[in-house]
Amino acid sequence: MNNNHSFDETSKDKQLETFRSYEKGKKLTTNQGLKVAEDEHSLKAGLRGPTLMEDFHFREKITHFDHERIPERVVHARGYAAHGEFELYKSMKDYTKAAFLQEPGSKVPVFTRFSTVAGSRGSAETVRDVRGFAVKFYTEEGNFDLVGNNIPIFFIQDAIKFPDLIHAVKPEPHNEMPQAASAHDTFWDFVANNQETAHMIMWHMSDRTIPRSFRMMEGFGVHTFRFVNAEGKAHFVKFHWKPKLGVHSLVWDEAQKISGKDPDFHRRDLWESIERGQFPEFELGVQIIEEKDEFMFDFDILDATKIWPEEVVPVQLIGKMTLNRNVDNVFAETEQVAFHPGHVVPGIDFSNDPLLQGRLFSYTDTQLIRLGGPNFHELPINRPVCPFHNNQRDGYGRQTINVGQVSYHKNSLADNSPSTSTEKEGGYVHYEEKVDGRKIQARSDSFKDHFSQARLFYNSMTLAEKKHIVDAFSFEVGKVKDKNVRQQVVDMFVNVDKGLATAVAQAIGVDHPDGEESAVAETSPALSQETTAKLPDTRKVAVLLGEQFDGNELESIVTACLDAGMVVDIVSDKFGIIHAENGLAIEVDETFLTVHSVLYDAVLVVGGEVDNPTKFKKDIINFVNEAFQHYKPIGVASTGVSFFDASDAEVGSGIVMADESNNFNNDFIAAVAAHRHWDRNIYG
């Protein structure tokens, strides 16, 4: 087909502009372009008579409405997305001939969709779940989709088990409960009877599955792919996305409360950060293994339930993705975008990972039903920025008007066009891997170790992270009604850590497990979130304020917070303007009715005077108590001491008192940057 869009870093945005519709100031028309004179009343036979069939405008309008919905994704239904660009740091030409990975400083447009796996499209966003992290690169050689998750491994090793996994984790079919949750019988029955899940379950029970925001979680390609360079030499590769803001999470009680206070918490966070100009940034890293080293490790590099430990195979950072524009229309872009791990470009190829091989079949298949046929590539969000020409024709939703009589290959009537390309001309040539073996339905013995890396993960956690994992198991398995399934889970995870299994057994009321404590104590510091970047940037602070506050003190701390890149909300008993004792006027952003402590990263207690001081004090105390229980930083201005003293919070880790700090502003910002203060004694 013809495509007149030249390729540069803004080419996708230019292409999308041709499809945008701006209605402001326009006259209402039908879909056929006919101007409409009446849009409030259908055509009737008399004022109180029946509606007439000839009212074509009514029929078009109601019919379109009746057909507005398309099937939601079977998995990853709840998602949100943004546009951006990818900039290359260093050339990868020694490893791959992919054009977008050749020239340092070069840029390509991207579209990134984050999601939850298990919940429906209308479910809450802060549930305990794996998060999808899918990136579409619009390159000059075609679209490359890196379709991954925020966890580097998966539950199963072979794609034939995927329907079983999803059937188990989805709401149980007899009562359609629970929504967007793995804390139920069928999921844990699946886990206990499919022990290849062990490693993934350790990640699933960790803080990784309740991220603070999409902007603060890692992304992984999960599978082993291949880089192939211009000389035909291949290397195995895994892809990583590293957030510049570090990897941070919610605590479970906080996550549950946010689901009720703001079920759109994650998408709102992404939208607002981009609207503020605080663009999320992720660095792309690669782990590379030479083909000759394929079998030198104590794990199979093709096993999707295994990581390549970063201390063994270092991650090279090769570029940066910046998400800098929100979508114009969630349905047209976020909902209709079609990702596929088989969308690759020359220089990127596949491995024999059996889970990846199954995904290569499944993704096209699901788009056919979701998007109404084989022409989903012509939807604006899915169109490549480079020209595309082939002999595919017709079908639902076809937009291209193909000119000419020829629609087959080979031909002489059109000089054999469109013609194939040689490898030197950019034609995709599959890597010539030697394959030799008998047809067999089995799994390699190298895939049979299900517990060593699960143990590595648990050993790498801090004491606080281990406690969260124990609590997560206790909650999730505690929701299982069948006691036999509970016991099976405990007996399974004694293979990871006996202390973990024993603590869970005690919490959920089953027999303590048999088995010996593992003597294996290897760790991988990269697996712990405590080793991540800790910055104040984009952290959200609630300033609790009333009339006659200390204007000089507040102005100083708010200015310091804003200079540090933080977001500040003034929270009071009602909307309007509040005045300081020095005459400073400040506008209220939120009230105690419209927001809650769990929606903020930190609290600054200032206090002041209001019409109902008793309720005001109670509201502040509730804010402080919640923040303290969730290990968040709390700053207390000189006028806020009496409010803090009336709360259950205690002076200690992460508590910054203006009357005790020599440098209150810097100390508070440092406390916010630390994110959580796990050494706080919240249980007495």
UniProtKB/TrEMBL annotation:
PROSITE patterns: CATALASE_1, CATALASE_2, CATALASE_3. Coiled coil: none annotated. InterPro entries: Catalase, Catalase_AS, Catalase_clade2, Catalase_clade2_helical, Catalase_core, Catalase_haem_BS, Catalase_immune_responsive, Catalase_large_C. It is an enzyme of class 1 (oxidoreductase). GO terms for molecular function: catalase activity. Residues 29-417 form the Catalase core domain. Its cofactor is heme. CDD domains: catalase_clade_2, GATase1_catalase. It catalyses: 2 H2O2 = O2 + 2 H2O. It comes from the Bacteria. Keywords: Heme, Hydrogen peroxide, Iron, Metal-binding, Oxidoreductase, Peroxidase. Its EC number is 1.11.1.6. Decomposes hydrogen peroxide into water and oxygen; serves to protect cells from the toxic effects of hydrogen peroxide. Belongs to the catalase family. HPII subfamily. This is Catalase. It comes from Sporosarcina soli.
